[in-house]
Amino acid sequence: MWLLAGSSAALGAGLPSGEGREAVEVQCSVCHPVSRISQSLGYSREGWLELMGTMVDLSSDPARRGAIADYLAEHFPPNERRAPTLLEGDTDISFHEWVVPTLGQRSRDPAEAPDGGIWWAGQWGNLVGRIDPMSGEMREYPLPPGSMPHSVTLDRDGGVWFTGNKNGTLGRLDPASGDIEVVDMPDPSVRDPHTAVFDDDGLLWFTAQHANRVGRLDPQTGEVELVAMPSSGSRPYGIKIDAEGTPWVACNGSNCLVRVDPDTMALTEIELPHQATTVRRLDIADDGMIWYVNSGRGRLGRYDPRSGEVQEWPSPSGEKSHPYAIAVLDGVVWYNESGMRPDALVRFDPVTETFQSWAIPSGGIYAGIVRHMRPTRNGDLLIHQSATNRIIRVEINR
User: Fold this and answer.
1) CB 96 within 8 Å of CB 395
2) Which tens digits make up the pLDDT trace of 105-147?
3) pLDDT on residue 13
4) Which strands sit side by side in the sheet containing 299-303, from one edge to the other?
5) Where in the chain is the domain with CATH 1.10.760?
6) Which of 73, 77, 319, 378 is packed most tightly, with the most Cβ within 10 A?
7) CATH classification code of 8-75
8) Would you say 161 and 196 are in contact if contact means Cβ atoms under 8 Å apart?
C-alpha cells in the first residue's frame, strides 16, 4: 500500500466539508483516489463499516473508524444513481463467497486447478493465493517485490503463472515448494503483462495493455517474443485461444479484435462497426463464434470469423453499463455490467435472444467489480468482487 502524492486538499478534492473529512482524506487515499467514494452505491453507517472492514483494520482506533463511518454515512448515503436494470428469468443461481485473508489486496481473476483448488491474484497485496473449496482453508504466497500480479493462469503440470503487471515479468509459482521462477520481458518498455492463456502446445500467450504488445512465452526455453499491435493505442486486454489454436485479442483502446497467427505471430485487425466501441474481454463458443463485451457502448457483441458478420445487443442497463468480464458456458453467454452499482451478472441466451440478470453480492453490501470470469469443470462460474476481497463461485442450478 502507498499514499498518493499530493496535498490533503488535492486528495480530498470534491469531498464535502464536515467533521471527519480529514480522516477520510488521509485514510482512504492510502489505496485509491477518494473520488471513488462518490462513485459508490452509497451506504448506511453499518454498510460503510462493513466495506471499510474489507480494506483496512481500524479496530485498534475505534474513534477514527467511527468518525470516518459517520462522515461517509452522512454525505454518501444509499443512492440509485447507477442502479442496474435487473431482468427476471427462468435460470436459478446462487453465490458462494470466500473472503481472502489480506485486507485491501484487490483479489481477482480466480481460476480452478485440476485438483479443485481455486487460485487468485491479490494485485495490490503483491501475492497469489489458493482456496480449498471443501475445507475453506486458504494460503497466500508473497511474490517478488513490485510484481503486482494482474492475473493467474495454470499450466498442465500444476504450476501457477502470474503476470507481473508493474515490473515487466511473467512468473511461475511451484505450489509444492513455494519456489518462484521469473521471466523478464526482453524489452524494458513492456512493463505491464496483463492477461495470459496457454495453448495446447504449452505456449503462454499474453497481452501488455499499455505497451500495446502481444507476447508469447515458451516455458521450456524461457524465450519471449513480442509483436506490436497493428494500430497505436489499441491497448490489448483480454486474450483467448480458439479450437484451432489461434489466439484472439480484445482491444480496450479502439474498436477492434485482433487475430494472431500462432506460427508467425502476424496480427490481423478486425475493425468493429462503431468508433466508440472498446472491448475489455472476449470468449469463444464451441461453434467458433467470438463473443465480446462492447464496454464503450454498453453492448454485447458477436463476431463470426467465417463470414465476418458482426451483431450486437444492447445490455439491459444501457450504454453506460460498461460490460467487462465474459464467459460462454454451454452456448450461453455470461458477463457483468461493471458500470452499475451493484455490479450485475448478466445471462444471455443466443437462441432466444433473452437476458436475465442478478445483483452480485459482497457480503451484506454491494461494492465490487468483476474483471475476469472463468468456468469451473462442472460448469459453474468463478468471479470476484475486487473491492471487497471476495472470490465467488456462481453455482448454476440446471
Assistant:
1) yes
2) 999 999 999 999 999 999 999 999 999 999 999 999 999 999 9
3) 53
4) 279-284, 290-294, 299-303, 310-314
5) 8-75
6) 73
7) 1.10.760
8) yes
Lookup: cell for 212 = 500495446
- 92-397 belongs to CATH 3.90.420.10: no
Tell me: the pLDDT tens digits for 162-194?
999 999 999 999 999 999 999 999 999 999 999
Q: How many helices (H) and strands (E) would you count in the chain?
A: 5, 28
User: In one letter, which amino acid is 378?
Assistant: N
Nearest-10 crossing angle of helices 21-28, 62-75: 100
State the Cα–Cα distance between residues 328 and 348, nearest whole angstrom. Answer: 9
Count CB atoms within 10 A of the CB of residue 383.
27
The sign of the torsion formed by the CA atoms of 354, 359, 361, 366 equals: positive
Residue 9 predicted with pLDDT over 70: no
Q: Which of 380, 381, 354, 356 is nearest to 370 (CA)?
A: 381
Residue spans in the chain of domains classed CATH 2.130.10.10: 92-397
Burial class (CB in 10 A: 0-12, 13-18, 19+), 398: exposed
Establish how many alpha carbons lie within 13 A of residue 106's alpha carbon, considering only the half-sphere containing its beta carbon: 14
Q: Cα–Cα distance between 340 and 331 in angstroms, integer?
A: 25
For the chain, the farthest-separated pair of C-alpha atoms sits apart, in whole angstroms, at: 64
